[in-house]
Design goal:
By secondary structure, the protein is an alpha/beta fold. Helices cover 46% and strands 14% of the residues. It binds 1,4-dihydronicotinamide adenine dinucleotide.
Length: 272
């Protein structure tokens, strides 16, 4: 399995930071041809340069996954450049923090457009190539995708939608060779909380949690890279991820209590 990724063509959305960047680096290290996709092209160009200096075959495409046209262009340009697509990692995402009673509805719409429709658009246009290549489509989701999360209502709704989409796609493809995998990291040190939207749609700007105490993005990347050759359906990470998965099934009311009290303790929590 060591050379599994050699010359495989992999697209990683949201590869300008955090989990996406760590995954793109690891794929390049393993010999994959990597397409970097995110909105910040200057940052992507720097990463492209860094990886090319290490001998990797990569290229960057400016992509806003909430735009269907951008996602279509991402897939077309990838195929024009590399002829095929073996792996699509739907990782781009944003978060939010506010209560539903206070939130401007545009925040929920943005979360759905990026986290859910971004995954749908990229998967739709990549699907014929992925099926031909007997490839893998991956969705990076969250614990908030299987249990409601107070103060993260738009995030949780978008990740629940993503779970429904990915598992339906997996079952639809029971008799094809398409591999569909959902990744559920626990809290991971990244920009996700700094770039989260608050009630009026502005950016939170700082993390309400101790990023240094979290799992590193490289751990998530490692688990993704291990899960693909094994064609896993689900990769569930960290104690809070595994614990929440157990509790949502067996003690859901206790998990409600836990989420409420845990998130209420964050500085400037919108509830107490
Ligand atoms: P991050 O903020 O460091 O990275 C998110 C990436 O998505 C960035 O490259 C960002 O530019 C990109 N992005 C955001 N909106 C985009 C758009 N419209 N078009 C294209 N790219 C866009 O955060 P992180 O943590 O690395 O997030 C990656 C994924 O992991 C997300 O889907 C997130 O929901 C998920 N996740 C993160 C957890 C965490 O604690 N960090 C926990 C569970 C899931």
């Amino acid at each position: 399995m060591n050379n599994y990724f050699e010359n495989k063509v992999a697209i990683v959305t949201g590869s300008s930071s955090g989990i996406g960047l760590a995954t793109a680096r690891l794929l390049a290290e393993r010999g994959a041809k990597v397409v970097l996709a995110a909105r910040n092209i200057e940052k992507l160009d720097e990463i492209e340069k860094e990886l090319k200096e290490k001998g990797a075959d990569v290229f960057a495409i400016k992509t806003d996954v909430s735009s269907e046209q951008d996602c279509r262009d991402l897939i077309e340009e990838t195929v024009n450049h590399f002829n095929t697509i073996d792996i699509l990692i739907n990782n781009a995402g944003i978060s939010m923090r506010a209560l539903f009673k206070d939130i401007d509805l545009k925040v929920i719409r943005t979360l759905m457009e990026v986290n859910f429709f971004g995954t749908v658009y990229c998967t739709k246009y990549a699907l014929p190539y992925l099926m031909k290549a007997k490839g893998s489509v991956i969705g990076v989701s969250s614990v908030a995708g299987f249990h409601g999360m107070p103060g993260r209502i738009g995030y949780s709704a978008s990740k629940h939608a993503m779970h429904g989409f990915m598992s339906s796609l997996r079952i639809e493809n029971r008799k094809t060779d398409l591999h569909v995998m959902l990744v559920i990291p626990g809290f991971t040190a990244s920009n996700i909380r700094r770039s989260a939207l608050v009630a009026d749609g502005s950016i939170q700007g700082e993390s309400p949690r101790k990023e240094g105490k979290m799992m590193m993005p490289e751990e998530v990347a490692n688990a993704i890279i291990k899960g693909i050759p094994k064609r896993k359906k689900k990769v569930l990470l960290s104690i809070e991820g595994k614990g929440s998965s157990f509790l949502t099934k067996w003690c859901p009311s206790y998990l409600d209590w836990l989420f409420y009290h845990h998130l209420a303790k964050e500085p400037n929590s919108p509830f107490e």
